[in-house]
């Protein structure tokens, strides 16, 4: 992904969007994990005070700083105990998917707000307030989709790896569990050399275009009512 690629391309709107994501969306991501685990009978997150949207309970200092300046970051993982789940295999899959799904929902909300705002922005191109809102929402959507796509990479310790391990045959799943540290190092190397940038950017752009297409009627409706 090239975690330092956006360091010198920051603007105040993107910075504000990232602050909002750190304070609201990272906690939502972890809350979603804990909430889904609770649905399957695991109350570990709740017992540890992590079934909350309070950012102070979730934020990781290094992960927050990195997200603020690079767009790549993380929160403290919510504790999960599969042994307490009524259906551990299914529970782990859905619990792992809940976090990225919350990012996609947040991004979809941002796209809907963009569709509502864009007709006003297009009709009042000189408005500094509308320009600020437009860039803020664009940054909000971009970072949320990037977080969702990144977390779905099937390499430990990311959410996608937990889904993959539950879907693989026992031998392959066991191998992944035994080599999680090595695979995590491989992930960091791929990030630092930017090897993930092209495929991740392609997927992110595809999701953005899909969301815009699916919500285009909202912008058309707003324009008709103006």
Per-chain topology:
Blueprint: H1 12-39, H2 44-47, H3 61-70, H4 88-123, H5 128-151, H6 159-167, H7 170-178, H8 180-192, H9 197-225
Helix pairs in contact: 1-3, 1-4, 1-5, 4-5, 4-6, 4-9, 5-9, 6-7
Tell me briefly what this model is:
With 226 residues, the chain is an all-alpha fold.
H/I helix tally: 9
Major β-sheet profile: none
What's the shape? Answer: globular
How far apart, in Å, are the first and last alpha carbons? 41 Å
Helical content band: over 70%
Q: Over all CA atoms, what is the radius of gyration?
A: 19 Å
Strand content: under 5%
The structural domain count equals: 1
Secondary structural class:
mainly alpha
Number of E strands: 0
Give the uncertain stretches in residue-range form. 1-8
Order of helices and strands: HHHHHHHHH
Question: Please, what is the average pLDDT?
Answer: 91
Keyphrases for this structure?
226 residues, mainly alpha, disordered N terminus, globular
Overall description:
With 226 residues, this protein is an all-alpha fold. It has one domain. The chain contains nine helices and no strands. Helix 4 (88-123) packs across helix 9 and helix 5 crosses helix 9 (197-225). The longest helix is centred in the middle third of the chain and has 36 residues, at 88-123. It is globular, with a radius of gyration of 19 Å. The termini are far apart.
